[in-house]
């Protein structure tokens, strides 16, 4: 049997293999693009959820700040009344 000599020409089986490789690479590129879109959508969804949580926390903090300010204002008014009463008592 004579030894096989490569002539450098593409045989039909090599062309089919190369075409399959190109098709596989294209499928991988498409899948990669699809995965990138999914990741971007998940990031956007996660950012929206984080923004919603922060808004809730901010609302809670604002409510707490208003309650503290009202309590402080009440205490200041109470002290002002006591001071006025003490001044009135001292001047009588």
Q: Enumerate how many helices there are, as a single number.
A: 1
Largest sheet: none
Give unreliable regions as ranges.
Answer: none
Rg of Cα set: 39 Å
Outline, from the CA principal axes? Answer: rod-shaped
Q: Please state roughly what percent of the residues sit in beta strands, choosing from under 5%, 5-15%, 15-25%, 25-35%, 35-45% or over 45%.
A: under 5%
Quote the average pLDDT: 89
> Number of DSSP strands?
0
Oligomer: single chain
Structure classification: mainly alpha
> What is the share of helical residues?
over 70%
Order of helices and strands: H
Terminus-to-terminus distance = 135 Å
Structural commentary:
The protein is an all-alpha fold and 92 residues long. It is 87% helix and 0% strand. The radius of gyration is 39 Å and the shape is rod-shaped.
Secondary-structure topology with pairs:
Blueprint: H1 12-91
Outline:
The chain has 92 residues and is an all-alpha fold. The protein has 1 helix and no strands.
